[in-house]
Design a protein that fits this description.
This protein is an alpha/beta fold and about 250 residues long. The protein contains 8 helices and 7 strands. The chain has 2 domains: about 190 residues, Glucose-6-phosphate isomerase like protein, domain 1 (Rossmann fold, 3-Layer(aba) Sandwich); about 45 residues. It is globular.
Amino acid sequence: MLLPQDKYLEAGLHIGTRFKTIDMRPFIFKKRDDGLFILDLRRIDERIRLAAKMLGKYKPEDIMVVASRLYSANAAGKFANMTGVDIMKGRFIPGTMTNVKLKIFKEPKIMLVCDPKGEQEAVREASKMGIPIIALCDTDNYTGFVDLVVPTNNKGRKALAMVFYLLTRELLMSQGKISSYDQFGQRPEYFERFEDEKSEEMAKEVEASEAKASETDLLPEEKKAKEKKEQEEKEAKENAEGKKEE
């Protein structure tokens, strides 16, 4: 594997959602007791390798990455800076690949999208223009028009950082800019870190809102179990503090 298995697990690349599409069924390993679907680590590793090899066949200027969300834009932006590929952050402008009159008109020869659901306009236009599409897909994604599915947690900060860390390393190897992994100086944490305070604050707000949203996804019995666990942890902490005072 490109990394030891425990590194993948720590970054949470295998953690999916509570929803499963028929398209992503081949990449799912199991359903956890809490309702989350778990992706197969072997398939994740295999597809990251294939994606890197596929991208390595093109010149950097012919590759376009579309990253509409905060975490993906941050990690993909560093991937773009280090490899020289083109990137579109934030909302994808309709007509980017089909309207030659647009100032931002682009003609990539291959495209990587970070979420085919949030970036469906980019997928539609690339497909219309015959541009190969690589997509990072979670368990809730449909994969129509996608040429290469890379199964992964495409929402988590650490997971996306790890994916782009690996893609950067492998693509730099393909480009001949490094000849061994030892020459790759960056760590996954670099792709996770935001370089300015404003973006970091935005990231914290996103994390807080996503945590709140995940609460609404819990089933009634899951909420009760969570509340019970929190209460037990609180009581244990209070008891421990009480013993210290004694």
